[in-house]
Amino acid sequence: MTHVLLIEDDEQIAASLAQVLRQRGRLVSVAHRASEALALLVDTPPDVAVLDLGLPDLDGLDVLRMVRGFSDLPLIVATARDDEPTIVRALEGGADDYVVKPFSGRHLDARIHALLRRERADRDPVIQVGGLVIDPGAHEVTLDGVRIEMRPKEFALLRLLASRPGEVVSRRTIAQQVWDHPISSTDSTIDVHVSALRRRLGETSAEPRYLHVIRGVGVKLARPADP
Q1: 77: which strand partners?
Q2: Where in the chain is the domain with CATH 3.40.50.2300?
Q3: What are the φ/ψ torsions at residue 214 (nearest 5 degrees)?
Q4: What single-letter DSSP state applies at residue 54?
Q5: Which residue has the higher pLDDT, 134 or 125?
Q6: Contact in structure between 112 and 48 (CB atoms under 8 Å)
Q7: CA dist list (Å): 9 to 30, 34, 50, 205
Q8: What share of the chain is helix, strand, coil (3-state, %, to 5)?
Q9: How many C-beta neighbours within 10 Å does residue 6 have?
Q10: Cα-atom radius of gyration of the chain, to the nearest Å?
Q11: Helical H runs in 94-139?
Q12: CA–CA separation, 46 and 5 (whole Å)
């Protein structure tokens, strides 16, 4: 679930936008003052921030400058200021998008969705192997269009294998890249996680579709048609 920090001094506007964003599946935090927003950005960093420039305790452009001093999170300026110098200053100062009021909650949600899609594409390309799709940025996995919940280490293991489709990844490499430390030959950690992945993907060791264990060597993820 995407966490949105809405920085808006007008309580009525903030409540209206937050309601729509929550209805569309966003987790929303609201700050009405710059000081409150900066504290939230440090303590509970969101996935994206929406910043109004007309805050009561600090100009929004100064807030933007301060945020960019410690964070590169996706940020949309949403304000009534529509003059070109302000728009240019905001974009040159680090805003990823600029929206002029009035706008609807659906409009803002669409902007957020587009910004996060671009951000994730730039940083973490989506990986697809057959009907299996791994989105590292969103930390999501779908199989034939159905979303699959995964624990962090399961996701990390699947992401590693999917990044090298058809290639046998050694147990040593898996241990180093997923657990960041060596695993002994008698350690069952990798085997346990491979078994968990198989259950989530709806397959078994007797009838593997995607996951193939090469005994004594490592693990391979391949398209179902290319075992």
Answers
A1: 51, 98
A2: 3-123
A3: -100, 105
A4: B
A5: 134
A6: yes
A7: 9, 9, 12, 57
A8: 40, 20, 35
A9: 25
A10: 22
A11: 105-123
A12: 6
Q: What is the pLDDT of residues 15-37, one digit of tens each?
A: 999 999 999 999 999 999 999 99
- The answer to whether the beta carbons of residues 3 and 47 sit under 8 Å apart is yes
Topology at the third CATH level for domain 127-221: Arc Repressor Mutant, subunit A (1.10.10)
pLDDT of amino acid 188:
82
Q: What kind of fold does domain 3-123 have according to CATH?
A: Rossmann fold (3.40.50)
- Nearest-angstrom CA–CA distance, 115 and 121: 10
What's the pTM? 0.56
**218-227: per-residue pLDDT in tens?**
999 998 865 4
Q: What residues contact 167, with CB distance under 8 A and at least 6 apart?
A: 220
Which one-letter DSSP state was computed for residue 166?
T
Q: What are the φ and ψ backbone dihedral angles of 46, each rounded to 5 degrees?
A: -85, 175
Q: Which whole-number Å values give the CA distances from 171 to 168, 178, 183, 190, 216, in the listed order?
A: 9, 10, 8, 8, 8
Contacts 24+ apart (CB under 8 A), 79-85: 79/51, 79/52, 79/53, 79/54, 80/54, 81/53, 81/54
Residue 4, amino acid:
V
Beta-carbon count within 10 A of 131 CB: 15
In this prediction, residues 91-116 reach a mean pLDDT of 93
CA 111/CA 44 separation, integer angstroms = 22
Instruction: Enumerate the CATH 1.10.10.10 domain ranges in the chain, comma separated.
Output: 127-221
pLDDT at 185 over 60: no
